[in-house]
Amino acid sequence: METPVSASVDYKQRAIELWTADPCGPIADSAVGLLAARREYAPFMGGALDYEGAAGLDVLDVGCGQGIDLCEYAFAGARVTGVDLTPRHVELARRHLDELGLQGTVVQGDGEALPFADAAFDRVSSNGVLHHTPNMPAALSEIYRVLRPSGRATIIVYNRDSAHYWIEQVLRFGVLERQLLSERKMSNVLSTNVEYSSLRVRPLVRVYSRRILRRFLLDAGFTNVAVKPSPLRSADTFLTRHLPQPMQKALARLPLGWYLIARGERQ
Q1: Which of 2, 84, 112, 180 could serve as 138's disulfide partner, Cβ 3.0–4.6 Å?
Q2: Is 152 within 8 Å of 87 (Cβ atoms)?
Q3: Cα dihedral: 72, 150, 129, 84 (round 10)
């Protein structure tokens, strides 16, 4: 089961503060640069989110950030809608769509209470977002609600069984840098290190196993659920980032990447 979060901490307000000051995603001075930086950082995401397969469909991106996935879906011919908790993200996503001459709707809203009618979308994606929300089961239920019958959701979250979690977060930060002594638990270590914050805001950061993520999707009503890890990147850990190119290619074949990619359908 998922560990309950403290009722005394407003993690949603923390998220707004964090990503208002430091919008999520690569640092770039244009929409073109933003998309190029994402493609370089995570080339697997195009296939995982199936941009091309969304042509002609109504697609919702929950936690759309600066609009990277919205732009990719729109380029592929989808009718796109984005929702994000942070008003600054909404502003940037609209701007980036406009810069690229793309059509789309972006609104401010909470993933745990989506501001859309039932069965409004053919596809829903949420990329690197739901590991920050206090109640993931509620968010998954909302995603299921707004999907049409035969619609499909793709959810990407942080992987507890990844090399990055165990080598970078647990070993490097938790043990070697002794953060577990001061922070007392790994959730605090993750909150300190995973998301960059110029204001030193500490967001909620969770990691999930394949089993737990699958169970959450099934409990929300999804069928044909599949969960797999992303490829391991050499940059994911301090032990692997300077390896020779042949070894980096070999590592990429290991199922130890920092992300879990989950798909589920609504019957």
Answers
A1: 112
A2: no
A3: 70
Q: Is 211 exposed, middle or buried (0-12, 13-18, 19+ CB in 10 A)?
A: exposed
Contacts of 118 (CB under 8 A, 6+ apart): 145, 146
Query: Within 61-209, where are the H helices?
Result: 68-75, 87-99, 136-146, 163, 179-183, 186-193
3-state helix, strand, coil in the chain (%, to 5): 40, 20, 40
User: Which tokens hold the place of 57?
Assistant: 């469909």
User: CB pairs under 8 A, 24+ apart, for 39-42?
Assistant: 42/230, 42/259
Q: What does the pLDDT look like over 68-95, one tens digit per residue?
A: 999 999 999 999 999 999 999 999 999 9
- The structural domain count of the chain equals 1
- For residue 214, is it within any domain? yes
CA–CA separation, 147 vs 100, rounded Å? 27
Please state the rounded mean pLDDT for residues 145-158: 98
Spatial CB neighbours of 252, under 8 Å, sequence gap ≥ 6: 231, 232, 233, 234
Please check whether residue 208 is in contact with residue 158, taking contact to mean a CB–CB distance below 8 angstroms.
yes
- At residue 249 the predicted structure's pLDDT band, cuts being 50, 70 and 90, is confident
For the entire predicted model, the pTM comes to 0.95
Structure confidence at residue 3 as a pLDDT band (50, 70, 90): low
In a domain, 179, yes or no: yes
Cβ atoms of 189 and 206 closer than 8 Å = no
CATH number for the domain harbouring residue 150: 3.40.50.150
